[in-house]
């Protein structure tokens, strides 16, 4: 293809992605308007005061809650120094996440000390495990004391794995009572496994308004993701996040860095690039990377508003595990917009597996980093089961 032809093709892809992005943002706005008055959101009038000054850092609205948050928040789980948390708040963070079980309860006390005098500037999120109603209420009341506050902005069910847990009526009863007592403002859930199922379940109901989900540039890669793709058993986490957010659910991303990946020297650091990748998804309202030092706060905050671009920043190639050289296609491969594969094309429906694995005998033998022979029978079986190859081929 000529240089002009490739340029036109890239421009066409960019235009289509822009249209998709605009449609998603329109959906978010409509969903936010539809649920802004939902009875499970308390104290909506206070949220305007929680927004950071316009023009300093990128902000997004947390679904239908009406809460405007900086796209780079803070997960305080492993932060032992309250001065680091206070420094983060003073430098643009307005969303802080903790839990009653972190550090055996000490983490909430650290956060409480850090936020003294600046509590009104921060959207404060904590968590509670599903338990009998009286135990859940007692746990949240203990969190209030530890955090030195009268109200917790977002109270999340901790570690939800299934649609059944989302529908647990006992947990809802406990959170309703806390809402009525003015001790929490917004109910939400967190999930580490079964994430697509949990996201879809939350999108179907009208009680929980936020989901904290583990999401990074590795989320839609790997053997599990590839097998799900082969059998059509999932849309992928990136797409499910966008779909759920379009229904007015606020999405918060955790475990965002995944070790980071490299971009050209003088551009973003690996951790900044990882954050920028997550924030490319318009369904993600904010992120909560862990920060334990002042330098980490500075580094992460510089990722606010940065973009790799839907087609990938020019020359930016994320480093994939198992590969000894960068992929032959840019960042958009990692985003799931195109299947990742190397060498001779085998069709758009054939998934890429980590380390340059190909699904079938057509895998080039000279691909650096490709996994060796023992995988071939299993991958061939996948193609046979999917009908891509006849059994006797």
Structural class: alpha/beta
Radius of gyration: 22 Å
Shape, please? globular
How far do the termini sit from each other?
33 Å
Poorly predicted ranges (pLDDT <50, ≥5 residues)? 30-39, 43-55, 310-373
Largest sheet: 8 strands, parallel
Compute the number of strand runs. Answer: 10
Word description of this protein:
- The protein is of the alpha/beta class.
- 35% of the residues lie in helices and 11% in strands.
- It has twelve helices and ten strands.
- The strands form two sheets. It has an eight-stranded parallel sheet with strand order 3-4-5-6-7-8-9-10. It has a two-stranded antiparallel ribbon with strand order 1-2.
- Helix 4 links the parallel strand 5 and strand 6 (152-157).
- The longest helix has 33 residues, at 3-35.
- It is globular.
- The model is unreliable at 30-39, 43-55 and 310-373 (pLDDT under 50).
Please describe the topology of this protein.
Blueprint: H1 3-35, E1 59-61, E2 68-70, E3 74-75, H2 82-90, E4 95-97, H3 106-114, E5 123-128, H4 133-147, E6 152-157, H5 163-166, H6 169-180, E7 184-191, H7 195-204, E8 210-214, H8 223-230, H9 237-245, E9 250-254, H10 270-279, E10 284-287, H11 294-301, H12 376-385
Parallel strand pairs: 3-4, 4-5, 5-6, 6-7, 7-8, 8-9, 9-10
Antiparallel strand pairs: 1-2
Provide a short characterization of the protein structure.
This protein is an alpha/beta fold. It has helices at residues 3-35, 82-90, 106-114, 133-147, 163-166, 169-180, 195-204, 223-230, 237-245, 270-279, 294-301, 376-385; strands at 59-61, 68-70, 74-75, 95-97, 123-128, 152-157, 184-191, 210-214, 250-254, 284-287. It has an eight-stranded parallel sheet. Strands 1-2 form a two-stranded antiparallel sheet.
């Amino acid at each position: 293809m000529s240089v002009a032809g490739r340029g036109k093709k890239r421009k066409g892809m960019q235009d289509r992605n822009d249209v998709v992005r605009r449609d998603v943002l329109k959906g978010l706005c409509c969903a936010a308007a539809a649920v802004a008055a939902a009875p499970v959101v308390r104290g909506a009038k206070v949220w305007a005061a929680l927004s950071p000054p316009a023009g300093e850092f990128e902000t997004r609205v947390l679904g239908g809650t009406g809460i405007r948050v900086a796209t780079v928040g803070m997960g305080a789980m492993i932060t032992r120094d309250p001065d680091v948390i206070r420094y983060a708040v003073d430098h643009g963070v307005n969303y802080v996440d903790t839990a009653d079980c972190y550090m055996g309860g000490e983490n909430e006390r650290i956060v409480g000390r850090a936020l003294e005098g600046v509590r009104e500037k921060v959207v404060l999120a904590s968590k509670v495990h599903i338990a009998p109603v009286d135990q859940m209420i007692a746990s949240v009341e203990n969190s209030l004391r530890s955090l030195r506050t009268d109200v917790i902005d977002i109270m999340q069910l901790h570690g939800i794995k299934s649609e059944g847990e989302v529908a647990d009526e006992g947990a809802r009863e406990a959170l309703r009572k806390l809402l009525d007592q003015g001790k929490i403002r917004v109910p939400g859930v967190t999930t580490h496994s079964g994430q697509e199922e949990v996201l879809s379940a939350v999108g179907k109901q009208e009680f929980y308004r936020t989901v904290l989900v583990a999401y990074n540039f590795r989320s839609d890669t790997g053997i599990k993701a590839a097998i799900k793709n082969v059998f059509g058993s999932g849309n992928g986490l990136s797409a499910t996040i966008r779909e759920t957010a379009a229904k007015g659910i606020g999405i918060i991303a955790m475990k965002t860095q995944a070790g980071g990946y490299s971009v050209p020297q003088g551009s973003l650091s690996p951790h900044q690039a990882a954050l920028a990748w997550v924030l490319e998804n318009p369904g993600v309202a904010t992120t909560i990377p862990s920060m334990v030092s002042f330098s980490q706060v500075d580094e992460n905050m510089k990722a606010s508003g940065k973009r790799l671009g839907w087609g990938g920043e020019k020359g930016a190639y994320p480093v994939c595990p198992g590969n000894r050289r960068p992929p032959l296609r840019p960042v958009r491969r990692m985003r799931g917009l195109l299947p990742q594969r190397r060498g001779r094309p085998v069709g758009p429906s054939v998934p890429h597996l980590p380390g340059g694995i190909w699904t079938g005998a057509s895998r080039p033998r000279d691909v650096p980093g490709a996994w060796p022979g023992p995988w071939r029978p299993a991958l061939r079986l996948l193609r046979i089961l999917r009908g891509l190859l006849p059994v006797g081929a």
